[in-house]
Specification:
The complex is a heterodimer.
Chain A lengths: L1 E8 L4 E6 L2 E3 L2 E4 L2 E8 L2 E10 L5 E7 L4 E7 L5 E3 L3 E5 L2
Chain B lengths: L6 H8 L2 E2 L16 H4 L32 E7 L2 E11 L7 E10 L19 E9 H4 L3 H23 L6 H6 L4 H12 L7 H16 L4 H15 L1 H4 L9 E2 L1 H7 L1 H7 L8 E9 L2 E8 L1 E2 L2 E2 L5 E7 L1 E10 L2 E12 L4 E10 L2 E11 L5 E12 L2 E2 L2 H5 E14 L6 E5 L2 E5 L7 E11 L7 E9 L7
Parallel strand pairs in B: 8-15
Antiparallel strand pairs in B: 1-17, 2-3, 3-4, 4-5, 5-7, 7-12, 8-11, 9-10, 12-13, 13-16, 14-15, 16-18, 18-19, 18-20, 19-21, 20-21, 21-22
Classes of the chains: A mainly beta, B alpha+beta.
Chain lengths: 93, 466
């Protein structure tokens, strides 16, 4: 099992995390920051992050298991949302 | 997936800025410092996050319908210092999908209870707010949107890899007209076929092999990406930078959509999410109010005996908020107990010849009597989009906050209208905020006056450790 840590910053309104098809709880740590941490078996999983905020807001996210790290960055759409899209992540054994 | 398109062009295209609205006094966050390390590619203002306004109230006002948010706030006004800490947490459920818990304590400059009303800016001492609610943010169906985002990113990844294999440069104008990766693959193949005979055969073979893989995987670029990236590092170091494990930041779907407009319109637009969201919550709001008082018997106060009165006043509040693009609007209706505490100096006078000495303390004459009260709060905030040089450095904000309270007895009412204006440096890791807040108060209580005051506020809001 590996520890997967996800941090999201710059999210004004809300964030939504889906990991391997399951909606995961994110903790709002204040100031537009969200975080999740959980144990995962090795293998390849698909995750997605959807963020909601004011139009044009910059946001970023980091997904890591300690060996592999994905860094995401973007700006909210004119309607106030953005996403990483479905993204594969391989959790190391 | 990584899409390291022409970053200079991307910066120009994506260089939108975010201005933010904050409600009343002070609230900002220490968090967000990792953004500089993680998101420097899409544009130069990645550090701007600054999301303290959030879907929640930036000052964690207990009467605001915009919610408490997570974190801690310390504010200092003429009425004393207030410390507030709150946590909100989402969870998966069809009906109730978030809760919030907040606590605050206030003392005025003399440590006295000397103010009227149950508003958070007025009542001293302990206050709490515990509620559960439903957020449409969490309930929104996003599966099709994220899948379409994956498709878009796969296409863009394919475009980038094919272009880099052939040494092509794609202009932003050209990028905006592309609707798939196929034309770039064809162009790349033609360019590689036209390479001079002296070119390294192994390099050409590797490039052709990858292009063939891209071409055969056009229906599922994401799967192709996983396959191709395993061998791409050896085939082309430059093209490998578009792969997930290369360490390059991954540009989001909406940022890519601003560059690949035609591709976005074809792939993502049909699955776009709604622009309107809402939150509803039901909250219990207890307030602890205490004061010294002198009892009154038959209209005669017993000034010599100090008595202490303390009570937990309960209220129930229903909050609703709407979020549409740059606008946030919230309404709160509450019903519960409030108390009118009017203190005055009670002095013990000692006389010794021609001299007198006084020992005075604040106390209410008569025991406080809580009464039921109904209150309503409305908040409207707007987040302007930054466009000038000034607003690229500082984000201005403004919010209109109105409050009305009508006790069930006495016929009095109290109304407040405040208009906080603030300026916060976009790049500040401390998320410092400074501003002024004019506040108008109308009160038809006989012993209360109408009031106009202007607060200067400055502060920072540390985040709750995860």
């Amino acid at each position: 099992m590996a520890q997967v840590n996800i941090t999201i910053t710059g999210v004004a309104r809300d964030a939504k995390l889906t990991w391997s098809g399951t909606a995961m709880s994110l903790t709002n740590t204040g100031g537009g920051n969200y975080a999740a941490s959980f144990q995962s078996a090795p293998g390849t999983f698909v995750y997605s992050i959807v963020v909601f905020g004011a139009p044009g807001d910059a946001w970023s996210a980091k997904v890591t298991d300690g060996k592999t790290t994905h860094n995401h960055a973007g700006h909210m759409s004119p309607a106030g949302y953005d996403t990483t899209g479905d993204t594969p992540f391989t959790v190391a054994p | 997936m990584k899409h390291a398109i022409d970053r200079v062009s991307a910066s120009r295209l994506l260089g939108t800025h975010c201005a933010r609205v904050i409600v009343t006094c002070l609230a900002m966050t220490l968090a967000g410092v990792s953004r500089g390390a993680t998101g420097a590619t899409a544009s130069g203002d990645q550090s701007s996050g600054g999301s303290s306004a959030a879907a929640a109230d930036a000052t964690q006002s207990f009467i605001s319908p915009l919610g408490l948010g997570s974190g801690a706030t310390v504010s200092v006004t003429e009425k004393g210092a207030t410390a507030t800490a709150a946590v909100d947490q989402q969870f998966n459920s069809n009906f109730v999908n978030f809760y919030q818990v907040g606590l605050s304590g206030t003392t005025n400059t003399n440590g006295q209870a000397s103010v009227y009303s149950s508003t958070d800016t007025g009542a001293p001492g302990f206050k709490g707010k515990v509620g559960v609610g439903y957020s449409s943010f969490q309930a929104t169906y996003t599966k099709a949107y994220t899948a379409a985002g994956d498709k878009l990113k796969g296409e863009v990844w394919c475009i980038n890899v094919a272009a880099r294999l052939a040494g092509m440069s794609i202009s932003t104008t050209e990028a905006s007209t592309l609707t798939s990766c196929a034309p770039i693959i064809n162009t790349a193949k033609a360019l590689i076929n036209a390479l001079p005979s002296g070119t390294d055969a192994k390099t050409i073979a590797s490039a052709r092999k990858v292009l063939a893989q891209l071409e055969s995987g056009l229906s599922d670029e994401a799967a192709t990406e996983v396959t191709v990236c395993k061998t791409l590092k050896a085939a082309s170091a430059e093209a490998y930078t578009a792969c997930p494990d290369s360490g390059a930041p991954d540009i989001s779907v909406e940022d890519l959509g601003r560059i690949y407009t035609a591709l976005y319109a074809r792939v993502v637009q049909p699955t776009s999410l709604p622009a309107l969201y809402y939150k509803l919550s039901l909250n219990w709001s207890p307030s602890l109010v205490s004061t010294d008082y002198r009892s009154v018997t038959n209209s005669v106060p017993n000034l010599a005996t100090t008595e202490h009165w303390s009570s937990l006043l309960n209220a129930l509040a229903l909050d609703g908020s709407l979020y549409y693009k740059a606008w946030s609007f919230g309404l709160e209706g509450a019903y519960g107990k409030t108390v009118d505490i009017k203190q005055q100096n009670v002095c013990k006078t000692q006389t010794n010849g021609a001299y007198t000495a006084q020992q005075c303390e604040n106390a209410m004459i008569g025991r406080p009597e809580p009464i039921n009260t109904a209150s309503a709060t409305a908040a409207l905030s707007f987040t302007p989009t930054a466009s000038s040089a000034v607003t690229r450095l500082f984000r201005p904000g403004v919010e209109l906050l109105g409050y009305f309270e009508h006790p069930s007895e006495g016929g009095g009412h109290k109304a407040e209208l405040s208009l906080p204006l603030y300026l916060a440096p976009i790049a500040s890791p401390l998320k410092a905020v400074i501003g002024i807040q004019p506040m108008w108060t109308w009160n038809n209580e006989p012993n209360q006056k109408n009031d106009f005051s202007v607060f200067l506020f400055v502060g920072a809001r540390p985040s709750v450790p995860n």
